Amino acid sequence: MIELKHASLLDILPPNLKRDETVRAAALSLDGQLRQLSEEIGRLTYYDRLDKLTEEEADELAWQFHVDFYEPGLPLEQKRELVRNAFRWHKRKGTPSAVEELVAALFGEGKVEEWFEYGGQPFRFRVITNNPEVTQERAREFYRAVESVKRLSARLERVILSQTEELPLYIGGVFHMGEKMTIRQVG
Asked: What is the pLDDT of residues 86-124, one digit of tens each?
């Protein structure tokens, strides 16, 4: 079977037309344009190549898919991640897992704790992240991202920046075995 991108019009011409030099030249002159058109058709399917989207394509798809939190200034990899997950997040919008996935896509790791998990006020939650980039400068961006996917009845109470470091731990101990002697001076 001949693939469309490798096909030539000569392949489908009947034998009597293949012998006509004018028809043959016309068929060969169109082959380049047909190959170019075949390549462009392959680019129409965005879902097959989400990891290869250009900036412009990602911006256009984000608008088309109504990506809740999307900024044109984001890095290309984050844009692709937001577009890739748009449908999934729309289906699960308002759930803690949707908030966690959006936070992970934009800011690295994040975990949502509901009010009943930490003894807070009803309908509140907090986000725990270990990404040091979630600073005061990016606080508004972080807040807008969470607000775009959380359920409307829930309120973000606080963001906890958790940082863990590997530190060497040295433990020492002494074991003494012997008699106890008390000396008193009488006097």
From this structure: 888 888 888 888 888 888 877 778 888 999 998 989 999
| C-alpha span between 182 and 187 (Å, rounded) | 16
Whether residues 110 and 60 share a domain: the answer is no
- Token pair, residue 36, equals 């170019």
For residues 172 and 187, give the distance between their C-alpha atoms in angstroms, rounded to a whole number. Answer: 42
The reply to whether 183 falls in a domain is no
What's the number of domains the chain is made of? 3
Name the residue range of residue 37's domain. 4-42
Same structural domain for residues 22 and 83?
A: no
Give CA angle at 101 (93, 103), nearest 5°.
105
- Neighbouring-strand partners of residue 126: 113, 158
* pLDDT at residue 122, rounded to an integer: 92
Are 111 and 127 within 8 A, CB to CB?
Answer: yes
Distances (CA, A) of 104 to 95, 108, 146: 14, 4, 11
d(CA 22, CA 161): 74
